[in-house]
């Protein structure tokens, strides 16, 4: 499928949309003041070592200390292999014997801070280039698993010949499959220079210093998002177009050829309806073309998708109606995962299907759509309860967490007490206060809806309470108050 990449740039924010056949598939947002940290290399200082958790907290100059688990501590094997390339040694070497409080460590961020959790770190450094990933602490030469197995041995041999005996390991990225020796050599030289700069900075700068910063979102568009299916990359800023063009000509000439400067009067995202898609991607309900719909609920622990037939009654029988709704949902859910950048544990509740061939077909379609994702995903089969459990690698905040915050009224619950429930809370609170204090009068300050209820349907109960406690109760409406909020003033 052919795709276009649209870039909307402003001094405070960069937005990138990947559009496939007119439909937005991915949306990436980077704000100047909130730029992601994944890939950054820091000189950290170990703040605490927790043997019971086999982890350490490392101060890298952020608001919260970052988290380093023993599994992410690089340790060379006696035979030259490193964890991840051979057998693991972390179980044999506890973290308290590898790091100590006050120690300066060169670390790399592998997960951004999410919610209340600090960034996650690794001491195994990897530097991504256009065609290769450099592993300066290893000697391993590997090839991306997405490259056909029949080509891997030949490509590995070519790469080993080019890297020579200068040390360091390399992994050939998917877009390096057809690269020439000259292009690979150029990338190798660039990555070795980047590592030399990091090592030099680590000897000169104090702890908590940034040693290396990953590419900006604009530059990552050329490195990570552009592929053979990309027809064009349209940028709405001339300055950024020229900057990106210069960067692309030096490091990614093939991708740079697809760059275009968008000169239209209408904002580029308006022209393609991207902002409407963003608004829908933040909603809880996703409408399907057939008339069915999805309900998406995102919690701290996991995300759930609930599939419903809605108004779809077009198939010949009930089984076919369910089957077609589930098939369409499989495609829509895979797209929503990319668009919303959802990660972690994901539960999909497809409509129950009686026929096994229907279940197999829906699962096959779901996995086929997930295979198009740039991010690693794993999907299991149907559980005994008819649910599909899957995971999607999470490295950055989801779109909702980046663009939204918990509601000030409901505090993220998604619902508030009814006006009648709040009114009864107020009546109970007045009774409690009357037993402890002896004011001349009670004044209730609450939202207009609650006050209206007291003046109408609940007026008899309020009058009865006033008579019972022997004090008058006055009412004051406050439009700025949320429905659950109220004050009882003693006069």
- CATH fold title of the domain at 284-402: Aminopeptidase
Uncertain spans: 78-91
Q: Helix share of residues? A: 25-40%
Could you report the average pLDDT, rounded to the nearest whole number?
87
Structure summarized in a few sentences:
This protein is of the alpha+beta class and 491 residues long.
Kindly describe this structure.
The protein is of the alpha+beta class and 491 residues long. Among the domains are: 3-35 and 216-274, Nucleotidyltransferase, domain 5 (2-Layer Sandwich), CATH 3.30.420.60; 284-402, Aminopeptidase, CATH 3.40.630; 419-490, Ribonuclease E, catalytic domain (Hypothetical Protein Ychn, Chain: A), CATH 3.40.1260. The chain has helices at residues 149-163, 181-204, 217-225, 238-251, 253-256, 268-271, 274-281, 318-340, 356-370, 399-403, 419-436, 448-455, 459-469; strands at residues 3-10, 13-20, 23-31, 41-50, 55-59, 66-69, 104-111, 120-122, 127-128, 132-135, 141-143, 169-172, 209-212, 230-235, 259-261, 285-287, 293-298, 302-308, 344-349, 377-382, 388-392, 441-446, 472-477, 486-490. The protein has a 6-stranded mixed sheet, with helices on one face. It has a 5-stranded mixed sheet with strand order 3-2-1-14-15, sandwiched between helices. The chain has a 5-stranded mixed β-barrel with strand order 4-5-6-8-7. Strand 17 (293-298) and strand 18 form a beta hairpin. Helix 8 (318-340) packs parallel to helix 9. The longest helix has 24 residues, at 181-204. The N and C termini lie far apart (72 Å).
């Amino acid at each position: 499928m052919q795709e276009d990449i649209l870039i909307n740039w402003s001094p405070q924010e960069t937005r990138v949309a990947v559009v496939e056949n007119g439909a937005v598939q991915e949306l990436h947002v980077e704000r100047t003041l909130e730029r992601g940290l994944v890939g950054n290399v820091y000189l950290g200082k170990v703040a605490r070592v927790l043997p019971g958790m086999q982890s350490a907290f490392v101060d890298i100059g952020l608001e919260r200390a970052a988290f380093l688990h023993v599994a992410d501590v690089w340790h060379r094997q006696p035979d030259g292999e490193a964890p991840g390339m051979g057998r693991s040694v972390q179980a044999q070497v506890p973290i308290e014997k590898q790091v100590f409080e006050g120690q300066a460590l060169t670390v790399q961020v592998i997960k951004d801070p999410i919610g209340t959790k600090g960034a996650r770190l690794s001491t195994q450094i990897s530097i991504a280039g256009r065609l290769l990933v450099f592993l300066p602490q290893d000697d391993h030469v590997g090839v991306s698993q997405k490259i056909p197995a029949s080509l891997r041995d030949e490509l590995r041999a070519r790469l080993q010949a080019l890297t020579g005996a200068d040390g360091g390991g390399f992994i050939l990225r998917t877009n390096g499959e057809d690269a020439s020796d000259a292009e690979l050599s150029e990338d190798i030289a660039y990555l070795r220079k980047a590592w030399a700069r990091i090592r030099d900075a680590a000897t000169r700068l104090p702890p908590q210093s940034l040693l290396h910063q990953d590419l900006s979102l604009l530059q990552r568009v050329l490195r990570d998002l552009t592929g053979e299916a990309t027809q064009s990359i349209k940028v709405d800023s001339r300055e950024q177009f020229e900057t990106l063009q210069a960067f692309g000509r030096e490091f990614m000439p093939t991708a740079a050829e697809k760059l275009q400067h968008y000169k239209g009067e209408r904002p580029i995202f308006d022209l393609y309806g991207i902002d409407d898609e963003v608004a829908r991607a933040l909603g809880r309900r996703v409408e399907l073309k057939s008339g069915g719909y999805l309900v998406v609920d995102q919690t701290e622990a996991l995300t759930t998708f609930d599939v419903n037939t809605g108004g779809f009654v077009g198939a010949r029988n009930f089984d076919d109606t369910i089957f077609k709704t589930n098939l369409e949902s499989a495609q829509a859910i895979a797209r929503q995962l990319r668009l919303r950048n959802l990660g972690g544990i994901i539960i999909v509740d497809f409509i129950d299907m009686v026929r096994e061939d229907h279940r197999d077909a829906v699962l096959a379609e779901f996995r086929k759509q997930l295979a198009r994702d740039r991010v690693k995903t794993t999907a299991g089969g149907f559980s005994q309860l008819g649910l599909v459990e899957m995971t999607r690698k999470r490295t950055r905040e989801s779109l909702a967490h980046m663009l939204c915050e918990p509601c000030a009224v409901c505090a993220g619950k998604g619902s508030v007490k009814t006006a009648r429930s709040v009114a009864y809370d107020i009546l109970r609170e007045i009774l409690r206060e009357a037993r402890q204090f002896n004011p001349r009068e009670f004044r209730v300050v609450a939202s207009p809806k609650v006050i209206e209820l007291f003046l109408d349907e609940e007026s008899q109960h309020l009058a009865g309470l006033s008579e019972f406690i022997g004090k008058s109760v006055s009412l004051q409406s406050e439009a700025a108050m949320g429905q659950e909020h109220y004050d009882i003033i003693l006069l």
